[in-house]
Amino acid sequence: MAALERIAPGHVTTVRAAVFDHLTSERTRTLSEKCEKILAASHRPPPPATMGLP
């Protein structure tokens, strides 16, 4: 936990500079909407396997 606390500020700064500083407010909202959909889908059970597929 101590290591995470130590590196978290640098990680946040790096992600902000690499991703969010290049997005407009509208694109940030769009990214947020997409992430919410991905998160919601990750909490649903997987679809049944299709016959013939591994």
Question: How is the secondary structure organized here?
Answer:
Blueprint: H1 2-18, H2 25-42
How would you characterize this protein structure?
The N and C termini lie far apart (39 Å). The relative contact order is 0.07. Helices cover 65% and strands 0% of the residues. It has 54 residues and is mainly α. The longest helix is centred in the middle third of the chain and has 18 residues, at 25-42. The radius of gyration is 18 Å and the shape is flat.
Could you provide a short overview of the structure?
With about 55 residues, this protein is mainly alpha-helical. The protein has 2 helices and no strands.
SS summary, helix count:
2
| Alpha-beta content class | mainly alpha
Termini gap? 39 Å
Please, what is the average pLDDT?
A: 88
Main beta-sheet annotation: none
Overall, the morphology is flat
Counting DSSP E segments of at least 2 residues, the number of strands comes to: 0
The helix content is 55-70%
Attribute tags:
single chain; 54 residues; mainly alpha; 2 helices; 0% strand; flat
